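Tokens in:
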């Protein structure tokens, strides 16, 4: 979940991107900035209090290809380093994607299964969810053997747990009289 600072940055970037008609392009720009600044070694340098802020900003800018992220992407990196908000970058990317999806009428869904789904199963799931939700679905599939079987869907803040593990837990509660 994105923090308040990440939401503010993401909203400002989103408003700028919408004005420029570049909402989808900014998804890629933000991911490029994130990838360049998120390795542990780079983070260590960019957050080091022993290195002058100006040098850390220059280092961050040097890691980015202005042709790929634009002048604004480089400025964002400099600003995050200057304000010691580099830790908000994950949340900024997450919140920006949510805003872009919402504006485009898309919804992100995470499906967790005990075993990997085939391409056909993924396609059928996306089609069924799109039909039921009345929106384009962006599906992320995760594998978590601990659920034993079935599926757990997360649609925004809603969780639909149709896993075997959840059913067994319900049965335990019924049997124990709780």
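Residues out:
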């Amino acid at each position: 979940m994105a923090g308040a600072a990440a939401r503010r940055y993401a909203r400002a970037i989103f408003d700028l991107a919408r004005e420029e008609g570049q909402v989808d392009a900014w998804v890629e720009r933000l991911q490029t900035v994130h990838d360049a600044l998120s390795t542990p070694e780079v983070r260590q340098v960019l957050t080091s209090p022993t290195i002058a802020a100006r040098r850390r900003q220059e280092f961050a800018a040097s890691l980015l290809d202005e042709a790929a992220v634009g002048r604004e992407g480089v400025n964002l990196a400099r600003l995050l380093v200057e304000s010691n908000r580099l830790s908000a970058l994950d949340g900024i990317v997450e919140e920006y994607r949510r805003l872009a999806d919402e504006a485009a009428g898309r919804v992100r869904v995470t499906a967790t299964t005990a075993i990997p789904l085939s391409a056909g199963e993924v396609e059928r799931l996306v089609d069924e969810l799109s039909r039921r939700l009345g929106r384009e679905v962006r599906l992320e599939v995760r594998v978590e053997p601990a659920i034993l079987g079935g599926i757990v869907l997360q649609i925004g803040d809603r969780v639909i747990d149709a896993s075997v593990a959840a059913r067994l837990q319900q049965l335990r509660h019924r049997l124990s009289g709780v």
